[in-house]
């Protein structure tokens, strides 16, 4: 994945239904992209980026503005710092809104594992890693870095044009690769593709299992990864053994002990034994993994257009499908949207509006 002027390396979510570009972009940005990012919970509570009057500030979980809207864009807090953009450049602030790392960078990522990926905008090799003080952990010697929180600090990166995705150590030395395709480590496992097929590697670079597999997901979650055989989806465990035989038409990642799967046109939650726990409402046409106890779903039945809502673990509606766009719940709130007027709204688990504003991207 290449760097652009956009702040996040994970803003493109493969397989997610298409969304309104302007509204969708702001919702993805405010939610921290498609990865595992979220707002940060501390003793003083989580803070959430929110568009206010054409700029971006931060609110708490009651909808009160805590940090005034004085930024062009912002990412959620992570490890005590939030990336914000001011006059076209990115830096980092603390929870009081104090500038901690100056506005120097063309693009950035949130802190993970004590480091953040930053793009200096320099030619050829613009990307490196900084620590929470803004000091270089690895100076800009890469063309791009996809992830920097692998086991023992491994980076997934590219140094030279034409080089395939490669895992490097914190000294900038090659550890594994290059590959035709590679995804970041999760649970000490990474998906890679080479001349012989798709593989899972462990933290030593060894293949698990000892033969290539047809994977249906980019990474492990809750100790499982989706695999596909004869057009059906099943799940493989961390040891490379098939834990749930492929029998589903579609399947999402395990989270909180359950995975959403589709069987004969109906969406269900299954557990790690493959047992059906509960069926989801019949009008659900797509279900995402559980996050904060709720599954983000789409529904089209009896409606002119697709709408988004949320389903509980017991399969019952928590928030009926009334929103034009939505992101998963994090720390008690979810950001949802209305295309008309590009309205962004934070709601709680009961669907109550906690805060409402118009897209700062307008």
* Beta-strand fraction estimate: over 45%
| Count of helix runs | 1
Using only C-alpha atoms, the radius of gyration works out to 21 Å
SSE-based structural type = mainly beta
Q: Unreliable segments (pLDDT under 50, ≥5 consecutive)?
A: 1-23
Average pLDDT: 88
The end-to-end span amounts to 26 Å
Task: Give the overall silhouette.
Answer: flat
Strand order of the largest sheet: 4-5-6-7
Please describe what this structure looks like:
- This protein is mostly beta strands and 362 residues long.
- The protein is 3% helix and 45% strand.
- The protein contains one helix and 34 strands.
- A four-stranded antiparallel β-sheet has the order 4-5-6-7, with no helix packed on it.
- A hairpin with a 7-residue loop joins strand 13 (155-158) and strand 14 (166-168).
- The longest helix is centred in the first third of the chain and has 11 residues, at 21-31.
- It is flat and about 55 Å long.
- It starts with 20 loop residues before the first helix and ends with a strand.
- The model is unreliable at 1-23 (pLDDT under 50).
Keywords:
362 residues, mainly beta, four-stranded antiparallel β-sheet, 1 helix, disordered N terminus
Short account of what is shown:
The chain has one helix at about 20-30; strands at about 45-50, 55-60, 65-70, 75, 80-85, 90-95, 100-105, 105-110, 115-120, 125-130, 135-140, 145, 155-160, 165-170, 175, 180, 190-195, 195-200, 205-210, 225-230, 230-235, 240-250, 250, 260-265, 265-270, 275-280, 285-290, 295-300, 305-310, 315-325, 325, 335-340, 345, 355-360.
